[in-house]
């Protein structure tokens, strides 16, 4: 009891706050964690760095925006959960960082030397949000054989007489990493303005991996490590959505990069710098390639199934579709099985009978209609329930020449392939790779076509 009492006495007074007021479900823009706590409530205040009012009246009438800063409980990142990018006029007011002070110039010189040490003799360098191009021109002068590109849609970029190539546009990792294959990407005092800096760095990582570009990324952002000891609040203004600690920058880079080569603070610990390298990440490439294959296969499957159904229609076959809601409705809509061409929809769920297929409009009828008025073909629209539905069809005494199910992009005969729909298949605990637990594959038996449609179906298979 004594120990518990002592621990309670040492607990922060904030522990007495209502958790419902303290805790927020808000995605951290640095690490992606979804729980944050109230950090600083600054009220509704105007823009302070990019508004530039031209009169006292204009200053008084400026719009005010919520300053609701929260802190990620995982990485310690601070961010304004009420920030809206469109409230900041980046298109008309360029972002001017810091000043021309001597200590700042000394910091820039140290950064330049640090970055030059990372470069080959003939480098390709990209700076994102390069401003007037001062740093990039200085680096280009030191590596005159290299290629240097400055991206900034809102700045007047000085090229140093052609030392660098100015691009008045946003840097797009999916486009520009493929085009330029940079050895180094520089991002100074940019990420704190973005809605989703983690997403941007992840794009750089994936694009570098996809293009097999051995790229390094240098990030520099304002650092709030000191605000905790100084209890300083003026750092938290609207234009900066994100406020990095040395830990939150580290966590962000660790999530994305092959290696975090450096985390350091500078300018009297008011900025934090990170250097990370990106290489080939085979797992992410495999996932992407699997997605591409699925996308292509899905389009091909849609065309094959539509053609098979058209051929059956052309043969004058009466087709009933079993199921009209949920995944069955998804099937009907994805394959464009309209009310005119495929009017007969049945279901065994009495609650669904009398309702209509979402998006297509067919009225859902009770299954026993097929006892009185048999269909030539019954198409089970919900592949995952094929076994249960087939058993129900049999027990209800419903007859049909063919019972069809879509399988890997084509219609197959259920009765010739019943083992494929055994609900006990694949019942093993998942491990890191689902591929390890996929059931053995075999080629399905195609459904036996009606004699008058043999040639038509052979033409499309």
UniProtKB/TrEMBL annotation:
The protein's enzyme class: transferase
Stretches assigned to the C-methyltransferase domain: 289-396
Organism lineage: Bacteria, Pseudomonadati, Planctomycetota, Planctomycetia, Planctomycetales
Keyword Chaperone: no
Keywords tagged on the record: Methyltransferase, Transferase
EC number from the UniProt entry: 2.1.1.33
Organism annotation: Polystyrenella longa
Stated name of the protein: tRNA (Guanine-N(7)-)-methyltransferase
GO terms of molecular function: tRNA (guanine(46)-N7)-methyltransferase activity
Alphabetized SUPFAM superfamilies for the sequence: S-adenosyl-L-methionine-dependent methyltransferases (SSF53335)
UniProt-listed InterPro entries: MeTrfase_14, SAM-dependent_MTases_sf
């Amino acid at each position: 009891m004594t120990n518990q009492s002592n621990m309670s006495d040492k607990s922060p007074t904030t522990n007495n706050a209502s958790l419902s007021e303290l805790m927020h479900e808000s995605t951290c823009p640095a690490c992606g964690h979804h729980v944050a706590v109230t950090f600083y409530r600054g009220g509704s205040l105007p823009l302070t760095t990019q508004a530039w009012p031209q009169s006292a009246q204009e200053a008084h009438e400026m719009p005010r925006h919520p300053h609701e800063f929260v802190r990620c409980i995982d990485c310690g990142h601070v961010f304004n959960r009420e920030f809206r990018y469109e409230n900041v006029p980046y298109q008309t007011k360029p972002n001017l960082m810091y000043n021309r002070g001597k200590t700042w110039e000394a910091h820039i010189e140290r950064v330049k030397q640090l970055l030059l040490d990372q470069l080959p003799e003939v480098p390709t360098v990209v700076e994102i949000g390069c401003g007037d191009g001062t740093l990039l021109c200085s680096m280009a002068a030191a590596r005159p054989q290299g290629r240097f590109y400055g991206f900034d849609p809102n700045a007047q970029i000085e090229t140093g007489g052609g030392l660098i190539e100015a691009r008045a546009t946003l840097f797009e990792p999916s486009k520009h990493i493929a085009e330029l294959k940079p050895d180094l990407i520089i991002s100074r005092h940019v990420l704190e303005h973005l809605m989703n800096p983690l997403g941007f760095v992840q794009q750089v990582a994936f694009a570098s991996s996809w293009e097999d570009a051995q790229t390094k990324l240098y990030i520099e952002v304002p650092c709030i490590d000191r605000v905790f000891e100084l209890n300083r609040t003026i750092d938290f203004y609207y234009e900066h959505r994100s406020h990095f600690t040395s830990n939150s920058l580290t966590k962000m880079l660790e999530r994305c990069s092959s290696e975090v080569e450096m985390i350091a603070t500078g300018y009297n610990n008011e900025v934090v710098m990170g250097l990370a390298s990106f290489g080939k990440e085979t797992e992410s490439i495999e996932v992407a390639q699997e997605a591409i294959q699925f996308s292509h296969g899905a389009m091909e499957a849609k065309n094959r199934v539509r053609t098979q159904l058209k051929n059956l229609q052309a043969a004058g076959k009466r087709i009933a579709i079993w199921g009209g809601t949920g995944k069955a409705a998804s099937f009907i809509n994805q394959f464009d099985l309209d009310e005119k061409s495929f009017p007969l929809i049945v279901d065994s769920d009495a609650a669904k009978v009398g309702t209509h297929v979402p998006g297509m409009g067919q009225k859902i009828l009770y299954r026993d209609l097929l006892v009185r008025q048999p269909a030539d073909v019954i198409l089970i629209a919900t592949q995952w329930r094929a076994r249960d539905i087939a058993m129900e069809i049999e027990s209800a005494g419903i007859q049909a020449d063919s019972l069809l199910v879509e399988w890997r992009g084509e219609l197959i005969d259920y009765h010739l392939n019943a083992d494929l729909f055994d609900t006990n298949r694949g019942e093993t605990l998942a491990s890191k790779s689902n591929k390890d637990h996929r059931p053995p594959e075999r080629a399905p038996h195609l459904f036996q076509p009606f004699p008058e449609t043999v040639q038509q179906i052979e033409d499309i298979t």
